[in-house]
Amino acid sequence: MPRFGLWPSLFLLMLVLAATGLSAAACGVFGGGTDDAAALEELPPEFVKLAEVWELLEQEHIDAATLNPEAAAEGAIRGMLDSINDPHAAYLALDQYSRMRQDIQGYFEGIGAEVGVLNGMITIIAPIPDTPADEAGVLPRDVILQIDGESTEGLELFEVINRIRGQKGTIVRLLVRRDRTGETEELEIVRGVIPLESVRLTMLVGRIGHLRVTSFSGTSKEELQRALERFQRSKGLGLVVDIRNNPGGLLSSVVEVTSQFVGEGLVLYQLDGRGNRRDWNAEPDGLALDVPMVVLMNQGSASASEVFAGAIMHHGRAETIGVTTYGKGSVNNLWPLTDGSAVNFTVGRWYTPSGMLIEGEGVTPDIIQEASEDDSEDAQLDLAIERLTKLIGN
């Protein structure tokens, strides 16, 4: 019978720390204070098998001298995350996590599309308007089958994202299966610099403002306030708030944006795995609490966009037009590990103030209006303007 030495114990402990999102430093495992054997006693007995297999490999495998502890640890972590049936769970190697952190700092080159997992398939949530993906014809709910001729089958979400990302001016080829027709199409996309602007206002005939919110970022509140101040200076009479193909963003941002239109009350609530509830309420002093408005949504409206739509509908603030949204209402945390890598998994789910689960369901608007098949027309926007014009009495 093999005897478990210090390395297998530490190896096992690191695997568990990785899977639980805790760092070894935070737990005092390395650097004095906490005995690793005592920590191991608190782990499920099934975890002993991990260390047992590793020691057997070290002692008996024909290529024991070439065993790579780092690769073995990463494989065990990926297997652990695969076993929990969480489509958003993933392991990010050091370079992948480093690139994601750069995005937070504002460095973003790629095609401009939000990618997620739907029914077990790597799927476009939405192309960001006026980006290479949008211009190349990428559509919400396109299933990505291949990237540069290589299948996406078996790839984790973040692996797919890293393969699509790249320097501006370079080309990526995506083979996609269309949601509506089931037909496949190859798209050649030239990567570019993706704009970080999240709010755009266009004043239309009849002093109607077309307010497009393309994401919920750390600057969205300030951008929206500037847009609303411009709307007021233009003596605007009504707003079409357009969240079509908005893939979401920060929870704090959607609460701030919703608060510009809803004066008080619940914006959303979250339930974690233990049934604990957390509420987010509207903040005071919104700039457009009484402005007549209509909200546009579609199947590319996801996550924070669905929170916004659900809150607007619950409070009876505006009529909503379009089609049912994407259905991404889970809360995913990214946990850094001690070596610079990270794990991502679901920690809770979002509900509208009326108690409707967003995850897997989406939000259905008051008025169903499909998008125009002709790109030269926008039937959804036309209907929104028509309804808003009647509302303001133009």
Tell me what you see in this structure.
The chain is α+β, with helices and mostly antiparallel strands. It folds into 3 domains: 6-83, no CATH class; 109-193, Pdz3 Domain, CATH 2.30.42.10; 199-392, 2-enoyl-CoA Hydratase, Chain A, domain 1, CATH 3.90.226. 31% of the residues lie in helices and 25% in strands. The protein is built from 12 helices and 19 strands. The chain has helices at residues 6-20, 24-27, 36-41, 48-60, 69-82, 94-104, 132-136, 157-164, 220-233, 251-259, 304-314, 379-392; strands at residues 90-92, 109-110, 113-118, 121-127, 143-147, 150-151, 171-177, 184-190, 192-193, 199-204, 208-213, 238-242, 266-272, 277-281, 293-297, 319-322, 330-336, 342-351, 367-368. It is globular and about 85 Å long. Residues 1-34 have low confidence and may be disordered.
Describe the structure in brief.
This protein is α+β, with helices and mostly antiparallel strands. Helix content is 31%, strand content 25%. It is built from twelve helices and 19 strands.
Features:
31% helix; Pdz3 Domain; disordered N terminus; 12 helices; globular; alpha+beta
Biggest β-sheet: strands ordered side by side in the sheet: 10-11-12-15-16-19
Q: List how many beta strands DSSP finds.
A: 19
- Radius of gyration based on Cα positions: 24 Å
Per CATH, the superfamily of the largest domain is 2-enoyl-CoA Hydratase, Chain A, domain 1
Q: CATH top level of the largest domain?
A: Alpha Beta
Overall, the morphology is globular
Query: Architecture of the largest domain, according to CATH?
Result: Alpha-Beta Complex
The poorly predicted ranges are: 1-34
- Structural class comes to alpha+beta
